[in-house]
Design a protein that fits this description.
There is one protein chain. The protein has about 240 residues and is an alpha/beta fold. About 40% of the residues lie in helices and about 15% in strands. It has helices at about 30-40, 60-75, 85-95, 100-120, 140-145, 165-175, 175-180, 200-205, 215-220, 230-235; strands spanning about 20-25, 45-50, 80-85, 125, 155, 225. The relative contact order is 0.20.
């Protein structure tokens, strides 16, 4: 017999990990951490991937992402953070691509790398904080062109969320004040003045024909792995 006196409202959903593992594309912004939280509520354990462009981004930006991953750890079981050295890839895109397509090509490279990590680490899906129409790379046309490089399951929990709704959740889970710290990630550097909002798939493929894809293999080879469940002193070694 079970006897209880009252019900206490919690976050709801399923216990973390009961429905498998996903790989969250975690940036330093507001959206991706909220997307991770909502996915964890559905019983998905998370690993994290962060794309870093030192020296254009800073170690403070890395620390910010580690702190956001720790926020999510507070809501359930989480795994590792994979820090991808993205500098050479991003510089190659900046130097050699039509600047209006820079963001499109960059996102396609991120998806390629994320898929490789997800397969190696046995994650069942890739998760991100994309919201329809929020920025140039998140129009439906852009999403279609970017998603062309993978047939992996991609989950976008915030696809139909209003920005104010996302901010509200970020404040509720305690990530907002960290997310707004002024340390840029690789998605906010090298931003062209007029990124294409309706990219053409054939143009994107054509632009990539002369790209050195060995840079992706090099980046994956040099990934830094951080176990978010380690003690603070051990994590601090990466900063």
């Amino acid at each position: 017999m079970y006897v209880f006196g009252k019900s206490i409202k919690c976050i709801g959903g399923y216990p973390t990990g009961t429905l498998g593992k996903g790989l969250l594309m975690l940036s330093g912004g507001i959206d991706s951490v909220v997307a991770g939280y909502l996915t964890m509520k559905r019983g998905v354990k998370l690993d994290f991937v962060y794309f870093e462009s030192l020296p254009h981004t800073s170690l403070e930006a890395r620390n910010k992402v580690i702190d956001l991953a720790k926020i999510l750890k507070g809501y359930g079981n989480t795994g590792k953070l994979y820090i991808v050295p993205f500098t050479k890839i991003q510089e190659s895109i900046y130097k050699n691509m039509d600047n209006t397509y820079m963001i499109t090509i960059m996102r396609r490279m991120m998806y390629r790398i994320s898929e490789k990590i997800a397969r190696r680490k046995k994650a069942l899906a890739i998760i991100n904080g994309e919201s329809i129409g929020q920025v140039a790379s998140q129009t439906l046309t852009s999403m279609k062109v970017v998603n062309d490089v993978t047939n992996y399951v991609v989950i976008r929990p915030l696809a139909s969320f209003d920005k104010l709704d996302i901010i509200k959740i970020s404040k509720e889970i305690g990530s907002y004040d960290i997310s707004i710290l002024p340390f840029e990630d690789c998605c906010t550097i090298f931003v062209p003045p007029h990124p294409v909002i309706n990219p053409d798939l054939e143009i994107a493929r054509e632009l990539e024909e002369n790209f050195d894809f060995s840079l992706l293999d090099e980046a994956i080879k040099n990934i830094i792995e951080i176990d978010i469940n380690e003690d603070k002193e051990q994590i601090d070694e990466y900063l």
